[in-house]
C-alpha cells in the first residue's frame, strides 16, 4: 500500500513526463520503500506490545524488542485483576492490589525456544525475581511453562501437574489451615511436576511421584533442582530459601522470601 501511494505521488508530480520516466520514478519509489527499516514487533502475535503468555517467539523478534522489554515489572492492570477474581484473588485476601506486581518474563521452553511467560508476585520481591529469571534465560535454563495460576482457576494441583511455574495464589498450605507464602506472593514454584512437594501425607502433584525419591543419585529427572542447579544458586543469592532444604518435608519446587526473616515458612 505504501508503494502504491508513493508511486501515485510520483506519477502526479510527473504528469507531463514520458511513460519511461514515470516507470523509472515508480521503481525509485519502490526502492525507497523496500529500504525502509521494518518496525520492531510481530503483527501476527502483537509481540512485544501485546504480551500473551505461552506464545513462542523467534530469536530475531527478541533481538528487535530488546531484553529490557521482555523482563519487566508493572502494576496489576484492570484486565489482569479481572482474570484473578475468584481464582488466585479471593474476597478475603488482605493484600492491596497495589502490593502486587505483574511480571513479563521471557523463558526457554522445553525445546529451548523463547516463550513468553507471566507471573504475579509481591512488590517487595519483583525486582529480585526479574533479575533471577533474566539470568536463567540468558543461561539457556529450561522452564516448560509460566502462566498465572488463574489459567487453572486457582487450582494449585492442576497447575503443578501441568509443570507450570507460578507465584501468587491466595491459599493455605496443602493439608493445613495456615496461609502459604504464595498467599502473599512471596514464594515461587518452579518446574513443579519434576520437583514435587514430598510430605508424610503424600506427594504433590500426584504425577510427580516418579521424581520424588533418591533424587541425589538420579540423573534421569528433567528440570531437577538441587544444590548444583543454577536456579537454586540464583534464588539463594537473592535471599530466598529453598524447600528442598526443609527437614520435616521436602518441597523441591519451592523458593520463598521472608522480609526481615520474621515470618514462618509455608508451602
Residues in helices, as a percent range? 25-40%
Taking Cα atoms only, what radius of gyration do you get, to the nearest Å? 25 Å
Sequence of secondary-structure elements:
HHHHEHEEHHEEEHEEE
Number of strands: 9
Largest sheet entry: 3 strands, antiparallel
Strand order of the largest sheet: 1-2-3
Find the structural class using helix and strand composition.
alpha+beta
Any key phrases for this structure?
three-stranded antiparallel sheet, single chain
Outline:
The protein is of the alpha+beta class and 267 residues long.
Provide the fold topology.
Elements: H1 2-13, H2 19-34, H3 59-65, H4 67-70, E1 71-75, H5 78-84, E2 100-108, E3 114-122, H6 126-138, H7 156-161, E4 187-189, E5 197-199, E6 202-204, H8 230-237, E7 241-242, E8 250-251, E9 254-256
Antiparallel strand pairs: 1-2, 2-3, 4-9, 5-6, 5-8, 7-9
Structural account:
The chain is α+β, with helices and mostly antiparallel strands. The chain folds into two domains: 2-34; 59-261, no CATH class. It is built from eight helices and nine strands. The protein has helices at residues 2-13, 19-34, 59-65, 67-70, 78-84, 126-138, 156-161, 230-237; strands spanning 71-75, 100-108, 114-122, 187-189, 197-199, 202-204, 241-242, 250-251, 254-256. The protein has a three-stranded antiparallel β-sheet with strand order 1-2-3. Helix 1 runs antiparallel to helix 2 and helix 6 runs antiparallel to helix 8. It is globular and about 90 Å long. The chain starts with a helix and ends in an 11-residue tail after the last strand. 36% of the residues are buried. The model is unreliable at 1-15 and 32-40 (pLDDT under 50).
